[in-house]
Design brief:
alpha/beta, Ribosomal Protein S5, domain 2, five-stranded mixed sheet, 5 strands
Length: 120
């Protein structure tokens, strides 16, 4: 059995990750990534969020459960140490086939892991 992922819980952590502007959008989710600050001691940390645009409380909770399952399957093996990840549910996250949701997360992870190309 894989180890349990450490969760991001504070608003400040979510805002810090969003401020880095390292993100990738896919039909089933949006992934944001930032390096962990200081010495947190965590291998990697993950936060989940779903706005009211996703639906009512039942729909938001279902979308977050599916994101947690996808993160456990993908980030546990492919996530980078000392990084914080935020998975944001989209309107179709709750109904998207699980295999496609996993593919969305894997593709987004590849995109944010690429080194940035700077012009100039």
């Amino acid at each position: 059995m894989t180890e349990r992922l450490v969760r991001l819980k504070t608003r400040a952590d979510f805002l810090r990750v969003a401020a880095t502007r390292a993100r990738a959008a896919r039909p089933g989710l949006v992934l944001q990534v930032a390096p962990q600050p200081g010495e947190t001691g965590a291998r990697l940390r993950v936060g989940y969020t779903a706005s009211r645009r996703v639906g009512n409380a039942v729909a938001r909770n279902r979308a977050k459960r599916r994101l947690r399952a996808a993160a456990a399957a993908v980030l546990a093996e492919r996530g980078r140490d000392r990084m914080d990840y935020v998975l944001i549910a989209r309107a179709g996250t709750g109904e998207r086939p699980y295999a496609e949701l996993l593919a969305d997360l894997e593709g987004a992870l590849r995109q944010v892991s690429r080194p940035e190309r700077r012009e100039g």
